[in-house]
Amino acid sequence: ASEGVLAAIDPARLAVAVVNPNQQTVDVTWQCDGRDRTMSLQSQEKVAASALAPPFQFGGCTDLIQYLSSAPIAVAAFLGDQEIPVWHAELPEAGVRTIPFLSDGEIILVNRSNQPVTGTVKQFHSDGGEASSTAYTLESKRSVRLRTTAEAQWAVIIADTGGKAPEALATVSGRGMVSGAIAGQDWDLVAGEGDAVVLVNPLNQSTNVQLEGAGPVTVPPHSQILANVKLSQSRILRVRSDGAIVTATLRPRSVAAAAAAAGDSNERQVVFPHFAAGAGYSTELDRKSTRLNS
Questions:
Q1: Residue 272: its pLDDT value, please?
Q2: 64, 5 in Cβ contact below 8 A?
Q3: Which of 76, 184, 222, 287 has the CB geometry, 3.0–4.6 Å to 273, for a possible disulfide?
Q4: Residues 6 or more apart from 290 whose CB is under 8 A from it?
Q5: Separation between Cα atoms, residue 103 and residue 71, nearest integer Å
Q6: Which residue, 169, 153, 160, 63, is CA-closest to 106?
Q7: Whole-structure pTM value
Q8: 50, 55, 56, 57 alpha-carbon torsion, rounded to 10°
Q9: Alpha-carbon span 156 to 4, nearest angstrom
Q10: C-alpha to C-alpha distance for 135 and 144, rounded to whole angstroms
Q11: pLDDT tens string 176-204
Q12: What is the dihedral of CA 74, 240, 233, 256, to 10 degrees?
């Protein structure tokens, strides 16, 4: 069995794609606002549609959309031309999450767990000065929205002692959305010509960062910096740091693309639920590395 959630940010603009990569039929139940919708996917079948259209019909959903399936499936969600996160139950949990970039928008907290969560959202200026502090309480499978504070540039979500922080997503004026992440030392970014990289050091000591295309960078304690990278085409950019950081790609006019932590995966199969093609859109697959076993 498998389960996951996504935020019902704007069902009128939301589209969902789901794929069954298994060799058997999979039954899926979608839940939102106390209503269930069920569907069956044949082996290798894909369904993609507006969230308002069959089989989804999520019109009126204002909180979270949850799915429960009889076997693992691949799910993607899009708000216009911006992909939004789908959080599945197997993702790692942590007591702190960091959103590396804010600008005149909202912070959306999502509790995908089966227990209530409590804690604090702290928003900061780029130099680490605190802009605001807001306590939160979230029941199981619920979300809440907070306005970003004027001139705040990044944020941390801190669970109360012994608790787990909710998932986090920020809407960013003019740049789409950026997800909160667990701080780490090894990151891979997709970046291209004209992009910048935002680096956030949530720790209380400076950290040195090796950034391809920009050279070594020192990020002061509890601070955010922007680094311009010199690239002539889209590629995977390696980011390595002495201490735990959070990073993302900032593109000139559209989205702030969240970074993916680097490292070997035990997954034998990766499924892309949807490709964009036509009407000015295209899809690129960037391969990080290839390992051959004899």
A1: 55
A2: yes
A3: 76
A4: none
A5: 39
A6: 169
A7: 0.85
A8: 80
A9: 23
A10: 11
A11: 788 999 999 999 887 777 788 899 999 99
A12: 60
State the DSSP string of the chain.
-EEEEEE-S-TTTEEEEEE--SSS-EEEEEEETTEEEEEEE-TT-EEEEETTSTTT--TT--SEEEEEESS--EEEEEETTEEE--EETTS---SEEEE----SSEEEEEE-SSS-EEEEEEEE-TTS-EEEEEEEEE-TTEEEEEEPPTT--EEEEEEPTT--PPEEEEEETTTEEEE-B--EEEEEEEE-TT-EEEEEE-SSS-EEEEETTTEEEEEPTTEEEEEE---SS-EEEEEEEEEEEEEEEE-SSS-EEEPEE-S----S---------BTTB-------------
**Lowest-confidence region among 7-11, 35-39, 190-194:** 190-194
The C-alpha atoms of residue 143 and residue 177 are separated, in whole angstroms, by: 16
Dump pLDDT digits (tens) for 130-147.
Answer: 999 999 999 999 999 999
The residue to which tokens 């019109």 are assigned: 59
Look at residue 289 and tell me whether its pLDDT is greater than 50.
no
Question: Residue 92's pLDDT is what?
Answer: 87
Peptide bond into 55 cis (omega under 30): yes
Please tell me the distance from the alpha carbon of residue 81 to that of residue 276, in angstroms, as a whole number.
9
Structure tokens at 96: 């702190």
Neighbours of 258 (CB within 10 A): 21
197 in Cβ contact with 229 (< 8 Å): yes
Tokens (6 digits) for 68 = 């429960």
pLDDT digits 0-9 by tens, 71-96: 999 999 998 878 889 998 888 899 99
The residue length of the chain stands at 294
pLDDT for res 232 = 63
